[in-house]
């Protein structure tokens, strides 16, 4: 894939970039390693100061950064603004809490003194996706930099200007040269990076094939990885649920980021007793959404990020139809305009045991399933290769306890949509990946947990 900015709302190529050659990559890896030797000696208060400064820059120039995101991958401008603000929050969160998260932990044993010390590992590679081009990077960079690691960013090839802007923010914040570098390279170079001794570990957010490829390359070198891959999150609505609120939230949870979020609600599993009403209300909501220019403030749904994403999504929809699915609204790309526009789409009656019902739909398409009771709801929710998040709606506390206990996912949200929060761990199980980002768990992923024993 060429490294380029192609406006997904118009199809116009705005800027192309040369990929780094091998000598340029080697020079950046050397710089990262030299920087690490100095950077690891800096104090928490110094790192916190720089990270707070990065948060200030994000807040001051949020409109500029949001515009870049919308231009490169098509998310509505208002959502892009919120994304930049959230990046500032995660910077401030780790600036404040990292010192306590990484303080020595004393453990009483028969030694005169024994404790755990957290030490940085070195250069960590982040292979990042285009869907949250700022947030995904900052939620890696903030804890990694506070822990004393240095960062190498291989961003998705369709968001190069975002990648360069992030490197610039971190440099302007005062972090030393080489503490965080963007590598403009294609995916084919990632395996070589993993084989290079100057790269110590890696994190990847993206598709399953990308995750597998990185994990294989890292595994050959016994290097640690964190993988945050796809999801087909269930959104379960039981009979006692507050239906109106559930429908409003269902719409937001499916349409967030033009439907291209790993934790978007994708499979709507609704109790038979309320299914007719839910379906009617959801259809009404979907049909009121405004599809169009993502720069306009009243746009709810912009274009998909690339023509490939649009094509894949449409193929999945047609495949669902050929297996018995009925389309209530949408169901075809919007061919009356340039760009990668797909309308809000609802599909019902897909047999739940067909392979297509278990795939991830990365776009504004909701699959609706009806179930007789909570047992069937949990069974269907868990009948997925993925296990990222789950949202479930009930006002019955016994049902709520069962959903929390029995749903196979990295996160269960009751009467709310799934969302990431710097204070809580984020990540999946099954084919959604492993490891955690955010919170104390996130910062502990890329450190040497050193046991110290003094007789
Ligand atoms: P990819 O997984 O291909 O891209 C994500 C990142 O991984 C990019 O930086 C990409 O680089 C890189 N990458 C791709 N292939 C490899 C590889 N073999 N080895 C190392 N790195 C690699 O996502 P796509 O953009 O192709 O989207 C396809 C599907 O992935 C979506 O439909 C969705 O299902 C899923 N996805 C999930 C995301 C999530 O948030 N969990 C985010 C994005 C996608 P490059 O851009 O240069 O190819």
From TrEMBL:
Cleavable signal peptide: none
Keywords, ordered alphabetically: NADP, Oxidoreductase
UniProt GO MF annotations: aldehyde dehydrogenase [NAD(P)+] activity; succinate-semialdehyde dehydrogenase (NAD+) activity
Oxidoreductase in keyword set: yes
InterPro entries, sorted: Ald_DH/histidinol_DH (IPR016161), Ald_DH_C (IPR016163), Ald_DH_N (IPR016162), Aldehyde_DH_dom (IPR015590), ALDH_GabD1-like (IPR044148), GABD/Sad-like (IPR047110)
Domain of life: Bacteria
Gene3D superfamilies referenced in this protein's UniProt entry, alphabetically: Aldehyde Dehydrogenase, Chain A, domain 1 (3.40.605.10), Aldehyde Dehydrogenase, Chain A, domain 2 (3.40.309.10)
Domain Aldehyde dehydrogenase intervals: 3-452
Family per similarity comment: Belongs to the aldehyde dehydrogenase family.
Protein name per its UniProtKB record: NAD-dependent succinate-semialdehyde dehydrogenase
Organism listed in the record: Nostoc edaphicum CCNP1411
């Amino acid at each position: 894939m060429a490294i380029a900015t192609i406006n997904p709302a118009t199809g116009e190529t705005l800027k192309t970039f040369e990929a780094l050659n091998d000598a340029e990559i080697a020079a950046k890896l050397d710089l990262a390693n030299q920087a690490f030797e100095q950077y690891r000696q800096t104090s928490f208060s110094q790192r916190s100061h720089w990270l707070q400064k990065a948060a200030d820059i994000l807040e001051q120039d949020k409109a500029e950064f949001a515009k870049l995101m919308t231009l490169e991958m098509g998310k509505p401008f208002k959502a892009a603004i919120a994304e930049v603000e959230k990046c500032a929050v995660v910077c401030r969160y780790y600036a404040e809490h990292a010192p306590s998260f990484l303080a020595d932990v004393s453990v009483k044993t028969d030694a005169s003194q024994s404790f755990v010390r957290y030490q940085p590992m070195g250069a960590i590679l982040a292979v990042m996706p285009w869907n949250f081009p700022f947030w995904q990077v900052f939620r890696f960079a903030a804890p990694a930099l506070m822990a004393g690691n240095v960062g190498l960013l291989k961003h998705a090839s369709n968001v190069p200007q975002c990648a360069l802007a992030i490197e610039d923010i971190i440099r302007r914040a005062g972090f030393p040269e080489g503490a965080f570098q963007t590598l403009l390279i294609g995916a084919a170079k990632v395996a070589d990076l993993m084989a290079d001794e100057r790269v110590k570990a890696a994190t990847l957010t993206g598709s399953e094939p990308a995750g597998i490829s990185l994990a294989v390359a890292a595994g050959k070198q016994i290097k640690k990885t964190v993988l945050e891959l796809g999801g087909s999150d269930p959104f379960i609505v039981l009979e006692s649920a507050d239906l109106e609120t559930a429908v409003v939230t269902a719409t937001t949870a499916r349409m967030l980021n033009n439907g291209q979020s790993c934790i978007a609600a994708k499979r709507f599993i609704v109790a038979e007793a309320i299914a007719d009403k839910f379906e009617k209300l959801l259809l009404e909501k979907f049909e009121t959404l405004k599809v169009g220019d993502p720069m306009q403030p009243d746009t709810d749904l912009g274009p998909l990020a690339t023509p490939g994403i649009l094509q894949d999504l449409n193929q999945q929809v047609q495949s669902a139809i050929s297996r018995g699915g009925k389309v209530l609204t949408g169901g075809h790309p919007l061919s009356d305009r340039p760009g990668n526009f797909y309308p809000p789409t609802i599909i019902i009656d897909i047999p739940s045991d067909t392979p297509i019902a278990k795939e991830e739909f990365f776009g504004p398409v909701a699959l609706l399933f009806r179930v007789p009771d909570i047992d069937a709801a949990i069974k269907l929710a868990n009948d997925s290769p993925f296990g990222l998040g789950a949202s479930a709606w009930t006002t019955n506390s016994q049902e709520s306890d069962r959903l929390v206990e029995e749903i196979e996912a990295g996160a269960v949200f009751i009467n709310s949509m799934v969302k990431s929060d710097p204070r809580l761990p984020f990540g999946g199980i099954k084919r959604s990946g492993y490891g955690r980002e955010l919170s104390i768990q996130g910062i502990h992923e890329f450190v040497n947990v050193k046991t110290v024993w003094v007789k």
